[in-house]
Amino acid sequence: MKRRDFIKNTSLTGLGFAVGNTLVNCDEDITEAQKTQNHKAIRDLYGIPLVVATWHVENATAKAMAVLHAGGSALDAVEQGCRVEEANAKGQTVGKGGLPDRDGNVTLDASIMDKDGNCGSVVYLQNITHAVSVARKVMEDTPHVMLAGEGAKQFALSKGFKPENLLTEASKIAWEQWKVKAQYKPIINIENHDTIGMLAIDKNGDISGACTTSGLAYKMGGRVGDSPIIGSGLFIDNDIGGCVATGLGEEVVKTVGSFLVVELMRQGKTPQQACEEAIHRIVNKPNSNYKNFQVGYVAVNKKGETGCYAIHQYFSITKYQADKNEQIQSEFYNRT
Ligand code: SD4
């Protein structure tokens, strides 16, 4: 069967996204130029490549898309995109400038996962700005998935990362003000900007994701959230899609949130339906005190469809797809 007949006889929706595999196998009797053109047409139809991230991070998604347009992989894109926010000292939730724990220490959590299901993460990392890149090194250069604390830092130093003081003057002042009352209460949305979770699909249709955070402001020393825990803050299955989470990590961990969203998509739910169902799992738990905390998910499937949902208003995502890099307000559960 010729490729054009194959396409004519097969609904693209039913096919799913198949640039890399199924369609290529039918390409034998067409020229390379036609092949390239056909692949581009299919990608354009699905709005691929694409980048989607938690919160309002247009500079980060722009960087990730630039990597994809230059032919880079989804893995390179999410790493480079997250690094933009890690280096932004004005952002008080990620990397340099992140708000410290209650003892004044800035401790970072980050994770990364690729199209082959490889993953790496760092937890409780101090004095290294680009936690996401250290997570990638853990994935690529060690036999392990997760490195913590001093071990993670020593590993980073051995890989050439430079030690830095991550506590900026602004974050130090905020911490000193917090200490006056020292009340610990999760903040529902910090300045429309929080943990950065990013998902990308590259021109081959392959998916990767990453997540990076300074965790909850004024957390207990040693506390680790969902972001570096594969399946909770981040999960990718290249056959199905990916998901990242933001918000109160404890609640995400208890429901293995990102894995749940991907599994729901595997069962046939759209990314939007899957994110909604995962939020419902949290709010419908017996004695859930969801009114006091935020959780938000963003997901993408293999076809390049995206979805997001949160417990409370003001969660937003940034989506860069089909030449549009835009902030989108998420739908939310709590209407009271
Ligand atoms: C955590 N999920 O450490 C992260 C932090 C976050 O809104 O997203 N805060 O629990």
Automatic annotation (TrEMBL):
Active site as annotated: 195 (nucleophile)
Site (Cleavage): 194-195
InterPro entries reported for this sequence: Ntn_hydrolases_N (IPR029055), Peptidase_T2 (IPR000246)
Domain of life: Bacteria
Binding residue positions for substrate: 223-226, 246-249
GO cellular component, one term: cytoplasm
A GO MF label: hydrolase activity, acting on carbon-nitrogen (but not peptide) bonds, in linear amides
Protein's recorded name: N4-(Beta-N-acetylglucosaminyl)-L-asparaginase
Naturally occurring in which organism (per UniProt): Winogradskyella sediminis
